[in-house]
Specification:
This protein has helices at 4-18, 28-41, 48-54, 65-75, 86-97, 111-124, 135-148, 155-165, 174-183, 192-206, 290-309, 314-474, 481-540, 567-583, and strands spanning 25-26, 63-64, 133-134, 171-172, 212-219, 226-234, 237-241, 249-254, 260-264, 273-277, 282-286, 557-558, 561-562. By secondary structure, it is α+β, with helices and mostly antiparallel strands. Among the domains are: 4-208, no CATH class; 212-312, Pleckstrin-homology domain (PH domain)/Phosphotyrosine-binding domain (PTB) (PH-domain like); 318-411. The strands form four sheets. The chain has a seven-stranded antiparallel β-sheet with strand order 8-7-6-5-11-10-9, with helices on one face. Strands 1-2 form a two-stranded antiparallel ribbon. A two-stranded antiparallel ribbon has the order 3-4. α1 runs parallel beside α5 (86-97), α6 packs parallel to α10 (192-206) and α12 packs across α13. The radius of gyration is 66 Å and the shape is elongated.
């Protein structure tokens, strides 16, 4: 069923064309002719008496559009059938109005193309009278037209044209719209035939609801032969003709909610086959290639799905969505304007509040100036009083400073005496620490000397034992002499090593003796230093008596122990040992 809003738009143009005086009213005789023509093209039984009966109480002459509308709704639009020829209906309304409003001689488009543009305008225009088309719908149509002609869309050119539209409130009337298309502003470089083909294709899609068209092969139901037909897909039907002239319609497939379309595998040498299954029949169809086959299957499935969901044709759904989007945008703009108005009112209120605050600030400033004058006078009086008090305090402070200086001098002398005593006490502690350290070093040297002497005695005992073993070896038989000689050489090497170790121990002992002597000298110096500090402390305090170690003479150290042999005996023992060594 055609929407009533779309049918009223062409009728409105026909009614306006009959209004010769531009008073908004048309005579009853003209309305009779218009109603009869409408009933004829819309295939509605015409009742010539109905108009008279409907307006028999109205004897005031011509009728306005509002007066004619109830009759139009009741006797014509309520009886409209879906299968009437909408092109003839639009053609009849177009013939009544176009010659009085536009001439196509100087334009790039012919009368038939202008008629199609007029129909497209009625489809895309707003549902408000007088009818106009907004810039968004103009852009939608031009994009579709340019895409159909295979040209490239120029965003910059349309942006410039959109700026020109702002002077016309971003909309055009149908005659302005036809003139823009006929001037070729958006189709420069295109010939009339290309432009005409583009307009015709857009007209078929938007007005005739042609979603897809083209040649396909259809299998017959009786002969089972394959025949080429021109198919036209609409939202609820798939018609096929002998050729694209649309003169001889061979049949129509009505699409319903329970219909389906499926792809079939290749068979009998036939490729790209798909089938349409309806309630009573099935239709096998062949496309020219796989891409075309997939496009037809997708388009038919979309139509069936839309029927199941109760949706309109795709371009009508798109138009509805665009209108809803514009309505939301207008609502948002109205809200924004209202918010701006509220903000402006709030701003004016703030300005008034700021003005009142400024006046209050001026009053407060005057009061503050008076208060400042009073404060300055009070401050001068207080300064005089504070100056006298300050002079008295200055005299008292000078006296206090003199007393503090005297006390500071006495305290400094006392601190100096205490510091001297503390320094003396620290030096005494250092001297005692040196003495204790010297004693510890002396004890360590004694232990070291004893350990060295013990090691020397052990080495000498080992040497004597080795010498005895060598003597026993010499008294053995001659047969063992060779082995003994080798062993003797090994023993000689060990003896040589022992001699070297003995010499090393002698050297260490000599170093230990030197360290002992050095420690003894340090101990003596520490004792003397302690005695000196003891005398100083005794002179200062008379109470400290230090205990110092007694004098110790250096002891003689030998390899056989402290003071075991004299130097002569030690020399004799050394000579006898060397002599035994030469014998071996």
């Amino acid at each position: 069923m055609w929407p009533r809003e779309e049918l009223l738009k062409p009728i409105w143009y026909a009614f306006t064309a009959l209004d010769l005086d531009h008073r908004g009213k048309v005579s009853k005789s003209q309305l009779k002719v218009l109603s009869h023509n409408l009933c004829t093209v819309m295939q509605i039984p015409h009742d010539p008496v109905a108009l008279e009966e409907h307006f028999k109480a109205d004897d005031q002459g011509p009728l306005s559009n509002d007066g004619y509308m109830p009759y139009l709704n009741k006797f014509i639009l309520d009886k409209v059938r879906e299968d009437f020829n909408v092109v003839e209906f639009n053609k009849m309304c177009w013939i009544l109005c176009y010659k009085k409003n536009i001439c196509t001689k100087g334009l790039l488009i012919k009368d038939d193309d202008a008629f199609k543009v007029w129909c497209i305008f009625n489809f895309l225009s707003e549902d408000k009278y007088p009818l106009v088309i907004v810039s968004e719908e103009i852009e939608y149509f031009l994009r579709k037209l340019v895409d159909t002609m295979g040209s490239e869309w120029s965003e910059d050119k349309f942006a410039d044209y959109k700026l020109q539209l702002q002077a016309k409130r971003n909309c055009l009337t149908v005659w302005e719209f036809i003139e823009v298309m006929g001037m070729g502003y958006f189709s420069k470089g295109m010939n009339r035939q290309t432009l005409s083909l583009g307009i015709n294709e857009v007209f078929q899609e938007l007005i005739l609801d042609v979603l897809k068209q083209g040649y396909l092969l259809k299998k017959g139901h009786k002969r089972k032969n394959w025949t080429e037909r021109w198919f036209i897909l609409k939202p609820n039907s798939l018609s096929y003709f002998v050729n694209e002239d649309l003169v001889d319609e061979k049949g129509k497939i009505y699409l319903e909610q329970n219909c389906c379309v499926e792809s079939l595998p290749d068979k009998d040498g036939k490729k790209c086959i798909f089938i349409i299954k309806c309630t009573d029949k099935t239709y096998e169809i062949i496309a020219s290639d796989k891409k075309t086959k997939q496009e037809w299957i997708q388009a038919i499935q979309t139509c069936i799905q839309s029927l199941r969901l109760g949706l309109l044709s795709p371009h009508r759904e798109a138009r509805l969505r665009r209108r809803e989007l514009r309505q939301r945008q207008h609502a948002e703009e109205d809200q924004l304007v209202e918010k701006m108005r509220q903000l402006q009112a709030a701003n004016e209120k703030k300005q008034r509040q700021l003005e009142a605050m400024r006046e209050k600030m001026e009053e407060a400033t005057a009061k503050a100036a008076l208060e400042e004058l009073r404060r300055k006078r009070t401050q001068v009086d207080l300064q005089d009083r504070y100056r006298l008090d300050l002079e008295r305090e200055k005299m008292v402070r000078q006296q206090m400073e003199e007393q503090v200086a005297q006390k500071s001098s006495e305290l400094e002398q006392y601190f100096q005496r205490v510091q001297e005593l503390e320094n003396m006490y620290h030096r005494l502690e250092e001297a005692l620490d040196d003495e204790r350290q010297a004693k510890q070093d002396e004890e360590a040297m004694r232990k070291l000397q004893a350990r060295l002497l013990e090691e020397e005695a052990t080495k000498r005992a080992e040497l004597e034992q080795i010498h005895l073993q060598q003597q026993r070896v010499l008294s053995q038989t001659e047969s063992e002499k060779q082995e003994l000689v080798a062993e003797q050489l090994a023993k000689e090497r060990e003896l040589q090593k022992a001699i070297l170790q003995l010499e090393k121990l002698e050297h260490e002992r000599q170093g230990a003796v030197e360290q002992y002597e050095e420690i003894s000298r340090k101990l003596e110096r520490a004792a003397n230093k302690t005695k000196t500090w003891k005398d100083k402390v005794a002179r200062h305090e008379g109470l400290v008596h230090l205990i110092h170690p007694g004098h110790k003479a250096p002891q003689r150290i030998t390899n056989w122990g402290p003071a075991s042999f004299t130097d002569i005996e030690l020399e004799m023992r050394k000579k006898s040992w060397q002599e035994r060594k030469r014998r071996l």
